[in-house]
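1st attempt posting a full record on here, be nice pls
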Amino acid sequence: MSDYTHAIILHCPECGEAYIRNEGKECSCGEDEKEEDMIEGWYYLHTNGELIYKRELGGTAADIRESDFAKGLWPMDPSDREGAWNICVEGLAAGANLSRVKELAAKWGCNDDDARIYAEYIGCVLGEDGSQKTATRKDFENLQVSPVGFGDTYLEAMAALCKELGFRPSKMWGNKFSDLLK
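the predicted structure (as tokens):
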């Protein structure tokens, strides 16, 4: 996939077949779903650890930013694969409930296979150490001097690395996980 940020798994409303829009694939029945690139809403991390979605109704982001209960804010554009991964990785690193992150990851197809594509796109190196998945920056030397994230999945390993690199959730214009990898 050459333009990972704008790849999305679509589901045909007629037959339910899944396909990736950017790979030039269409549903075999010919009734493929059409989507526009745009922010449809916002996910925010509540102080109780929940990742909550609010549809964009004009001024939604400002309302969330002003809330004392919101710790972090992410735009939701269904055509932005990197955005979906950012919500999962950064949300988990910031303290989101693991069960909610896993629910969203499953819904969006953010699995270990897709993690390899996302990691390569943002400059994260994935690996394995025994039964654990690992995530490091490209400048990794060894465990004594370099930050590393461990987890049961690559999502969990990247979230652990994100936290290790000092990620702090923001309500606007903060560092993303990809910024911390540089």
